[in-house]
């Protein structure tokens, strides 16, 4: 145990020499035995930060990927997409299995190979979801602690509301009463404006208020309507789990170590504890050698919706028959591991516009691009502080008499939750000209997919099946969503501005439209559910409501994979609150 005095000396020592305890080399790691070993994550750094608030607790984070430090594309909001190149150094380079709902297409599936997990490369959209989403989690798990009202303080705890980089007047664009001011993750409204586009969006909420009411803050738990996007950006830079929860003041703690390039294969060293199996160590590959990091209190898997089920399966936690066929001895027969994956799918609609106030004025003009970079580099202002997913978002519902409901009962968690998201993007299809796009997302899917392993080799690439548009419900619903997007642009606000669509969807018959959807739907990259929470004693599920893996001692999952169904929201805010509450649940048990 480290004494508090030593800890204080340690902090002084490390800060005075700028020492950083994110280790690049396993040989530099001071030891291989900790109270807690955390694997990966957006969520994992949150857990590591909170547990090491107690100086007598030691934590090691094992991350397979590389450091986020000094990667310009991970700092400049406008350039974030450059990190997503599937074969690049910052991606796991995953590809889905052939998607039956997408005419057998396989598509690349983005996952960050970076400290901070996907929060280091994502679109930075900050959306919490609906009250109904969390109230459904509480109902499914039998734990009121997951309800919106009880989770709400954790949203505030993660968040540091920050003025936008352009310091524009934000009155009416958000509700200050529902935001945190002292958390590690900066959240702000956009620090760069596209006035020609934005004023038309707001004007449409006045011209078509029945279908598209203005919502002054979509993060209140009542997201329905159209409003200003909030992003995990502070002072013009991306704010991530790595920059926030591992900021210098935290990573200098002598009881917190992070090792990069540590690819975890499986959990090892099973013993019995009060009639339950317990793993004593985490095996990982560094370079070409295998190592074991021991955890005396708990192992915490935060490897995300793909990595976590993969590690569980590699360790003999999963469906017995499947494991047996791969030659992996079963430790606990848990058939739900890797099942019930749910994810969003998006469809882009693009129009030419009679305006040069679009992203193309920068992306297609090398002079402006370089000027924008210099401006960002010298003052953290200008177009490069803009996060490219959009200026506004709308959260919409199917019509009450939608034919989709003849196929399946309403999959949304309640009348206050959306079926769709529409993102308003001031750019187009990467061809010369000026464009806008409406990205229509199906955010309450009926389809359920899976993450599986195909080999007893723990380093083999897992099989990802997000099952996009596998259910007819999702197809019919998305088609209705596309019509809502088209309707939005019929408002008078768009007259004289809107040119031709790049693909004339409206001219197609329904059969052709469905073919077009299946041929072009994009991944939402929001997979959850593959290590789902369920009520204690339920016949399905992977973890109990306290995030402990069912039937095992000393092992928790704390990441997006525990969410039973995908929320009607981008998933990082939900991931942060799972992590914050998860850390509290660990602390409660050990004090
Ligand atoms: C391209 C993209 C854009 C997105 N945009 C947004 C957005 O704009 N807004 C939003 O709210 N959400 C967005 N998301 C989703 C959001 O970022 C994720 O839901 C969230 O970050 C998930 O966090 P996590 O902790 O569950 O897992 P992850 O962030 O996936 O972290 C898992 C970590 O574990 C590591 N790991 C995995 N396996 C192993 C192993 N075997 N050994 C060691 N380490 C391992 C990985 O390298 C990774 O760092 C986006 C996601 C993607 C991919
Ligand atoms: C990425 O995956 C593709 C196939 O899915 C493969 O051809 C390519 O070599 C992989 N790249 C890297 C860097 O692993
Ligand atoms: C296995 O666990 C036991 C008890 O926790 C420990 O003493 C031993 O060192 C561990 N062995 C390995 C190889 O990790
Ligand atoms: C998937 O989740 C549903 C509840 O939403 C549950 O009834 C079902 O058993 C789960 N399936 C698996 C394989 O876990
Ligand atoms: C856009 O067009 C206006 C005139 O219509 C012009 O003044 C302005 O410089 C142009 N901006 C860019 C970025 O091309
Ligand atoms: C490119 O940007 C520069 C600098 O803003 C501007 O002077 C020029 O007109 C732009 N070119 C085009 C084709 O818009
Ligand atoms: C950004 O500015 C710094 C000086 O402040 C300079 O050293 C660096 O080269 C600039 N980066 C780029 C890519 O121009
Ligand atoms: C839709 O259009 C296609 C031609 O592109 C045609 O073959 C098909 O019969 C049409 N379907 C209906 C229902 O009109």
Report on the architecture of this protein.
This protein has 591 residues and is α/β, with parallel strands linked by helices. Helix content is 25%, strand content 20%. It has a single domain (17-360, 386-591), classed as 3-Layer(bba) Sandwich (FAD/NAD(P)-binding domain). The protein has helices at residues 4-17, 42-51, 131-141, 148-158, 195-207, 241-245, 248-251, 304-314, 320-325, 360-363, 366-379, 472-488, 510-520, 572-590; strands at 22-23, 33-39, 59-62, 94-95, 108-109, 159-161, 185-189, 225-228, 230-231, 233-234, 237-238, 256-259, 263-273, 276-286, 289-301, 317-318, 332-333, 345-353, 392-396, 420-425, 435-442, 450-452, 463-465, 498-501, 522-523, 555-557. The strands form seven sheets. Strands 1, 2, 3, 12, 13, 14, 15 and 26 form an eight-stranded mixed beta sheet that branches. Helix 2 (42-51) runs parallel beside helix 14 (572-590), helix 4 (148-158) crosses helix 14 (572-590) and helix 12 (472-488) crosses helix 13 (510-520). The structure holds flavin-adenine dinucleotide (FAD) and 2-acetamido-2-deoxy-beta-D-glucopyranose (7 copies). The site of one 2-acetamido-2-deoxy-beta-D-glucopyranose (NAG) has 6 residues, from strand 13, strand 14 and strand 15.
Which descriptors apply to this entry?
single chain; 591 residues; alpha/beta; FAD/NAD(P)-binding domain; eight-stranded mixed beta sheet; seven-stranded antiparallel beta sheet; 26 strands; 25% helix; globular; disordered N terminus; binds flavin-adenine dinucleotide; binds 2-acetamido-2-deoxy-beta-D-glucopyranose
């Amino acid at each position: 145990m480290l004494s508090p005095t030593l800890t204080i000396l340690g902090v002084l020592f490390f800060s005075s020499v700028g020492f950083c305890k994110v280790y690049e080399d396993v040989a530099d790691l001071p030891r291989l035995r900790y109270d807690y070993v955390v694997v990966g994550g957006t969520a994992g750094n949150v857990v590591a930060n909170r547990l090491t608030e107690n100086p007598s607790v030691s934590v090691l984070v094992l991350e397979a990927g590389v450091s986020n430090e000094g990667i310009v594309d991970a700092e400049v909001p406008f350039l974030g997409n450059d990190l997503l190149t599937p074969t690049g150094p910052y991606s796991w380079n995953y590809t889905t299995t052939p998607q039956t709902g997408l005419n057998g297409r396989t598509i690349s599936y983005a996952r960050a190979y970076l400290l901070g997990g996907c929060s280091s490369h994502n679109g930075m959209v900050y959306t919490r979801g609906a009250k109904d989403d969390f109230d459904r989690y509480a109902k499914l798990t039998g734990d009121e602690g997951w309800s919106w009202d009880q989770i709400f303080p954790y949203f505030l705890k993660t968040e540091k509301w920050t003025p936008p980089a352009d310091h524009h007047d934000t009155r009416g664009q958000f509700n200050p009463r529902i935001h945190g001011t002292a958390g590690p993750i900066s959240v702000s409204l956009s620090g760069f404006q596209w006035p020609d586009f934005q004023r038309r969006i707001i004007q449409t909420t006045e011209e078509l208020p029945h279908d598209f009411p203005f919502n002054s803050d979509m993060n209140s738990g009542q997201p329905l309507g159209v409003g200003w996007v909030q992003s995990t950006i502070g002072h013009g830079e991306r704010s991530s789990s790595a920059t926030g929860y591992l900021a210098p003041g935290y990573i200098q703690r002598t009881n917190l170590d992070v090792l990069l390039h540590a690819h975890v294969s499986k959990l090892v060293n099973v013993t019995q504890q009060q009639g339950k199996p317990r793993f004593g160590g985490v095996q990982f590959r560094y370079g070409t050698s295998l190592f074991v990091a021991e955890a005396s209190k708990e192992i915490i898997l935060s490897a995300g919706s793909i990595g976590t089920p993969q590690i569980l399966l590699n360790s003999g936690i999963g469906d017995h028959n499947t494991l047996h066929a791969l030659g992996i001895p079963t430790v606990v027969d848990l058939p739900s591991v890797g099942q019930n994956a749910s994810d969003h799918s998006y469809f882009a609609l693009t129009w030419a516009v009679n305006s040069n106030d679009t992203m193309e004025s920068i992306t297609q003009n090398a002079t402006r691009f370089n000027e924008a970079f210099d401006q960002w580099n010298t003052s953290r202002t200008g177009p490069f502080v803009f996060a490219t997913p959009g200026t506004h978002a709308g959260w919409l519902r199917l019509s009450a008499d939608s034919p989709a409901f003849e196929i399946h009962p309403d999959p949304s968690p309640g009348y206050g939750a959306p079926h769709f998201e529409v993102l308003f993007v001031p750019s187009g299809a990467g061809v010369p000209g000026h464009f806008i796009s409406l990205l229509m997302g199906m955010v309450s899917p009926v389809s359920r997919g899976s993450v599986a392993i195909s080999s007893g080799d723990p380093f083999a690439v897992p099989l990802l099946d997000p099952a996009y548009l596998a259910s007819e419900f999702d197809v019919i619903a998305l088609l209705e969503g596309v019509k809502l997007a088209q309707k939005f642009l019929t408002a008078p606000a768009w007259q004289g501005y809107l040119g031709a669509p790049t693909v004339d969807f409206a001219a197609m018959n329904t059969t052709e439209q469905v073919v077009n959807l299946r041929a072009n739907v994009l991944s939402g990259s929001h997979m959850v559910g593959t290590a789902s929470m369920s009520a204690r004693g339920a016949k399905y599920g992977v973890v109990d409501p306290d995030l402990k893996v069912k039937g095992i001692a000393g092992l928790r999952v704390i990441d997006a994979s525990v969410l039973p169904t995908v929320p009607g929201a981008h998933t990082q805010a939900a991931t942060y609150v799972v992590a914050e509450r998860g850390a509290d649940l660990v602390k409660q048990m050990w004090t």
